[in-house]
Specification:
This protein has about 525 residues and is mainly beta. It has helices spanning about 5-10, 20-30, 165-170, 180-185, 215-220, 500-505, and strands at about 45-55, 65-75, 80-85, 95, 100-110, 115-120, 140-145, 150-160, 175-180, 195-200, 230, 235, 240, 245-250, 260-265, 270-275, 275-285, 290, 295-300, 310-315, 345-355, 385-390, 395-400, 415, 420-425, 440-445, 450-455, 470-475, 480-485, 490-495, 510-515. The strands form six sheets. A seven-stranded mixed beta sheet has the order 12-11-10-14-19-16-17, with no helix packed on it. A five-stranded mixed beta sheet has the order 3-4-9-8-6. Copper (II) ion binds near residues 396, 441, 497, 502 and 507. Copper (II) ion binds near residues 396, 441 and 502.
Length: about 525
């Protein structure tokens, strides 16, 4: 498989401007688009131009902040398929229906090489944003895929090896919301009552510019933690609501921060969806854990609040398993001088009940149908594949290995259309382990949604494993068993820690789906 840049190098054209008409048609001629070019056999329902570019945006009072951001434009299809978040560096919200064919013409206008990953979406390997497919500034990569996922809250962000943390931190991330018929008949709040909330933390210097890692190895081993909590790119976020029910779509888009979310008044959270869409029925939790990359959707009914009252979503204190101290900086908690370590409590956003509602919805008792995998159908049901999350030679590894661009170990080979049991183990004790260095690891599998069938070593109740997942959080001492069905797309996909600093250090591996090429 080659991308356009490699093609140009191979053919000796050297620069995009030198591509002749016949070469252009040659580039477009392929029946199956496996190389990021426009494919003649693909008729999109939605055709989008998306670029990663540098910009400036006011975040804190005073100087604007230099950021990177995705900017989009609808070329064909419903203009409402792209929606910008007000005054935010975040990329446009992309809305698509299940079954739609989507083309995204991505252009890289930032200095770094990059590539875009559609987190949670089931797409062919060439469309998944593997780091081997990176493009330099000035190049483009065309994504073409059919949306096959259930309705849900997915997202997109860069995935170049070693640079994902800095690029997401710089502002490159956006939501990808999928709708379908099942969701539409579930009776959920919609329109202005369906609210995306992207949680991220950032650190700023005295002229309001973003500070990332200092370059200290220990800081990267921990993962980046900022002392400002931003919601949809804004500090001190306030959500104005009416006295009625809302659907709140939460994405943890932070590099390494984990949230232990609860309502300020201790009322239980009503969870209606996880990474891969709606649960079968709502579940209640006193609090929920949300690791980097994970999504949760809440049913939040403010009808029992008086107009003029306030509440808040908070992050409760927990043992974050930090390896060292946090960043020094100005704190949002009244300027204590220290940043928020992973596990320090803080308010996430305020809710201000500012108007009465004329009508309300009642919480549906049935949300969707989830087809449960049967562990007995797994090809390795007697012998789960085990993946140990361990530190080795001062680097986070999976089974002692770090990322190599095209390397696939024996246990990382899987067959198309087979169900496997994968177990991730965060129990430390690996080679080179030192005491007190256990850390949480949110593990993300590309290409599909999986089911969590067992957790051991868990000391709390904040997980929502009832629904489809693509990212699963393991706190120190925990192990989790997953049922994973490898689908109909062959090729190289990633699995990795979604602590983006861990990922950039190489806590990422390939898995290879082997089998005959499907027609799709
Ligand atoms: Cu990790």
């Amino acid at each position: 498989m080659i991308n356009r840049r490699q093609f140009i190098q191979i053919t000796g054209a050297g620069a995009a401007g030198l591509i002749t008409g016949s070469m252009t048609s040659l580039l477009k001629a392929g029946k199956a688009n496996a190389a990021g070019n426009i494919s003649s056999g693909f008729t999109p329902d939605l055709d989008i131009a998306l670029k990663a570019t540098a910009g400036e945006i006011p975040i804190l009072p005073g100087n604007p902040t230099g950021v990177w951001q995705f900017q989009g434009r609808v070329l064909k299809g419903d203009r409402a398929s792209l929606a910008s978040l007000d005054r935010s560096y975040l990329g446009p919200i992309i809305r698509a229906r299940r079954g739609q064919k989507v083309r995204i013409r991505f252009t890289n206008e930032i200095a770094d090489q990059t590539i875009v990953h559609w987190h949670g979406l089931h797409v062919p390997a060439a469309m998944d944003g593997h780091p081997r497919l990176v493009i330099p500034r000035g190049e483009d990569y065309v994504y073409e895929f059919e949306v096959r996922n259930r309705a849900g809250t997915y997202w997109y962000h860069p995935h170049p090896h070693g640079l994902t943390g800095s690029q997401v931190y710089g502002g490159l991330a956006g939501l990808f919301l999928v709708s379908d018929e099942e969701e539409e008949t579930a009776g959920l709040p919609s329109g202005e009552h369906d609210i995306p909330l992207v949680l991220q933390d950032r650190a700023f210097d005295s002229s309001n510019q973003l500070i990332y890692l200092s370059g200290h190895h220990m800081e990267q081993m921990n993962g980046f933690l900022g002392d400002w909590i931003l919601v949809n790119g804004q500090p001190d976020f306030i959500l104005p609501v009416a006295t009625r029910a809302y659907r709140l779509r939460l994405l943890n888009g932070s590099n390494s921060r984990i949230y232990k979310l609860a309502w300020k008044d201790n009322s239980p959270l009503t969870v209606i969806a996880t990474d891969g869409g709606l649960l079968e029925k709502p579940v209640q939790r006193r609090y929920v854990m949300l690791g980097p990359g994970e999504r949760l959707e809440l049913w939040a009914d403010f009808s029992r609040y008086a107009v003029g009252s306030e509440t808040a979503l908070v992050s409760l204190p927990f043992d974050g398993g930090m390896m060292g101290g946090g960043r020094r900086g100005r704190g949002m908690m009244g300027g204590s001088g220290y940043a928020l370590s992973n596990g320090t409590g803080f308010p996430v956003f305020k809710v201000r009940v500012n108007r009465p509602a004329k009508a309300n919805l009642t919480l549906p008792q049935r949300l969707s149908t989830i087809k449960r995998y049967d562990p007995a159908d797994a090809v390795n049901r007697e012998d789960p594949k085990r993946f140990h999350l361990v530190m080795r030679h001062m680097a986070w590894t999976i089974n002692g290995r770090t990322f190599r661009m095209e390397e696939v170990a024996p246990e990382e080979r899987v067959a198309m259309n087979t169900l496997e049991v994968w177990e991730f183990i965060n129990e430390g004790g690996g080679m080179g382990m030192m005491g007190g260095m256990d850390m949480p690891h949110p593990i993300h599998l590309h290409g599909m949604q999986f089911q969590v069938i067992q957790r051991r070593g868990v000391q709390h109740e904040g997980y929502v494993d009832e629904g489809w997942k693509d990212t699963v959080l393991l706190m120190p001492g925990e192990r989790v068993r997953l049922l994973v069905r490898f689908g109909d797309y062959p090729g190289l996909f990633l699995y990795h820690c979604h602590n983006l600093e861990h990922e950039d250090m190489g806590m990422m591996r390939n898995y290879l789906v082997e089998g005959k090429t499907s027609a799709a």
